[in-house]
Amino acid sequence: MNEILKMIENYNQIALYRHVNPDLDAFGSQFGMYWTLKEMFPQKNIILQGKMDSDLLHLYPEYEVNTINKEPILAIVLDTANKERIDGDISICDKILKIDHHIVIDSYGDINVEIENASSCSEIVALMFKELEYKLPIKAAQALYLGIIGDSNRFLYSSTSAKTFEAASYLIDTGINIENLYQSLYLKKKSDLEITKFIYNHYQEDGGVAWYYLSSENLKALNISREQGSNYVNTLANIEEYPVWMAVTQNEVDHNYRVSIRSRSIAINEIANLFHGGGHAYASGATLQSLDELNLLIEKLKEKINERNV
Ligand code: AMP
Fold it and tell me: What is the pLDDT of residues 56-78, one digit of tens each?
């Protein structure tokens, strides 16, 4: 932490990056860092990088879109395993500090804080400031708490450790209202029921793998974005017969198909790697060029399930 603080202190301009398709942990660690550094170093120019067009953004009120000045820039890249997945242009920065909890595939930072067994990047960021005994601003604590909740599925996944609760306890001590946070996450709309109904009516299955497919037409009819379409992946979770489940959505803009893969006790990240993807052992993402590739992906996943059954 001292080495990191020294690095931060050396720069008047700090750009905070995270991965494309941001989730609660990507935003949580980015906004947690943003509000904390802004409070700790009010004279520095702290800039949020990456597209700000997600419907998760209502969870992070009142951020500013600062413009970059001519001074040298330190990049802090959060929750991003490899350089290709960084949302924004990193080449404008002098030095890079990487903070991440994914399986290490690319240590692209000048300093790399890579803790593979942390539940979330937000957990790492929270514990970094705890080490400094710094009392976080409420907005930072809320963002980080949501990040931990998102990636650990509210402390359910096996990545949840004593450290996760230590981070949560430190965040709760700032006075955040977790009931309000949970409502902001879990309160559903009637339209969610329609989407869930569609998934239950149309999901498919093959040898332990369950998945739903949302074409561009389906997404339009359900009035949701491609990203929102993937967010329902856990509608198929916790079914004994399906140790692996997926959301497949058509990406009309990029002319491909995005797959969110989730599993119970079956490592799927290496299979995701084969399909332009990656991620965690039990939660990975992949991109398919055609629906034919989906059959291949399913075959690979079935092989993996069968290995376990042998
Ligand atoms: P998703 O299904 O997109 O929510 O992704 C699940 C997890 O895998 C998230 O932690 C992502 O950051 C990670 N992930 C998704 N796609 C990739 C990729 N192409 N390379 C590395 N990690 C990924």
Answer: 999 998 898 889 999 999 999 99
What mean pLDDT comes out for the span 149-168? 95
CATH topology of domain 2-185: inorganic pyrophosphatase (n-terminal core) (3.90.1640)
Please tell me the distance between residue 121's alpha carbon and the centre of ligand 1 in angstroms.
13
Note the pTM of the prediction, 2 decimals.
0.86
Domain boundaries for CATH 3.90.1640.10 within the chain: 2-185
The reply to whether ligand 1 has any atom less than 6 angstroms from the CB of 229 is no
The average pLDDT across 282-297 equals 96
CB of 283 within 6 A of ligand 1: the answer is: yes
Per-residue pLDDT reduced to its tens digit, 209-244 = 999 999 999 999 999 999 999 999 999 999 999 999
- Torsions phi, psi of 279, nearest 5? 140, -140
Taking CA atoms only, the protein residue closest to ligand 1 atom 2 is 260
Residues with Cβ within 8 Å of residue 48, at least 6 apart in sequence: 16, 30, 31, 34, 63, 65, 66
* CATH domain 190-309 topology: Diaminopimelate Epimerase; Chain A, domain 1 (3.10.310)
Single out the residue of 264, 191, 179 nearest to residue 225, CA to CA.
191
Edge-to-edge order in the sheet of strand 256-263: 204-206, 209-214, 244-251, 256-263, 283-288, 278-279
- Tell the residue number behind the tokens 């291949």, with chain if given: 296
Is the CB of residue 278 below 6 angstroms from any atom belonging to ligand 1?
A: yes
Ligand 1: does its nearest atom lie under 6 Å from the Cβ of 80? Answer: no
CA–centroid distance, residue 74 to ligand 1 (Å): 25
277 Cβ closer than 6 Å to some ligand 1 atom: yes
Q: How far is the CA of 58 from the centre of ligand 1 (A)?
A: 22
pLDDT digits (tens, 9 = 90+) for 171-196: 999 999 999 999 999 999 999 999 99
Q: What percent of the chain has pLDDT over 90?
A: 93
Question: Where in the chain are all domains bearing CATH 3.10.310.30?
Answer: 190-309
